[in-house]
Design goal:
- Helix content is 57%, strand content 14%.
- It has four helices and three strands; from the N terminus they run H-E-H-H-E-E-H.
- The longest helix is centred in the last third of the chain and has 18 residues.
- It starts with 6 loop residues before the first helix and ends in a 7-residue tail after the last helix.
- It holds the Pfam family HTH_17.
- It comes from Listeria kieliensis.
- This is Helix-turn-helix domain-containing protein.
Length: 81
């Protein structure tokens, strides 16, 4: 069954639901080492297709929200400024 979705629409959908490693690092504001530790501990799921590795945008955004809470909880002195 062939779908009639244009390439442009396919790219829009890809951007809507997935992020690259670089985008995930930018959103989370963490080091590559910390990021890959989360991936290896299966705290963040990855999607592999051929040579491409992507991450679910919603999952990364949820992790960013959780991190903000954890930073305030465990590093309150960073927020005393």
């Amino acid at each position: 069954m062939k779908t009639n979705i244009t390439r442009e629409r396919q790219l829009e959908l890809l951007d809507q639901y997935f992020v690259s490693t670089v985008e995930a690092l930018d959103i989370l504001q963490i080091s590559k080492q910390s990021f890959y530790s989360l991936v290896n501990r299966e705290k963040i799921n990855r999607v592999k297709k051929g040579g491409a590795v992507l991450y679910f945008r919603d999952e990364i955004l949820e992790r960013a929200r959780e991190q903000e809470f954890l930073r305030k909880k465990y590093r309150p002195f960073d927020y005393l400024k």
